[in-house]
Amino acid sequence: MQANAIDPDGISDGHDGWRQRIAALPNSRIIYVLASLVLLAPCFWQPRLQAGDLSSHIYNAWLAQLIESGRADGLVVVRQSTNILFDLMLSGLLRMIGAEWAQRIAVSCAVLIFIWGAFAFVSAVAGRRTWHLLPCIAMLAYGWVFHSGFFNFYLSLGLCFWALAITWNVTPRRFALAIPFFAAAYVAHALPVLWTSGLLLYICLARNLKPLGRAGLTTAFVFAMILIHTVVGHTLITRWSPAQITMTTGLDQVWVFNTKYYIVLMGLLAMWGMLFIGLVRANGPRQVVAGIPFQICVIGAAGVFILPSTVLIPGFYHALSYIAERMSLGVGICVCALLGAARPRLLERWGLAAVAAIFFCFIYADERVLNSFEDRMQDVVETLPPGQRVVSAIADEDMRVNAVTHMIDRVCIGRCFSYANYEASTGQFRIRAVAENSIVTRTYADSWHLQTGVYVVRPSDVPLYQVDLDHQGRLFIRSLKAGTQCGSTYWKTLKDWMPAGARS
Question: Largest CB tally within 10 Å, which of 19, 151, 321, 474?
Answer without folding.
Answer: 151
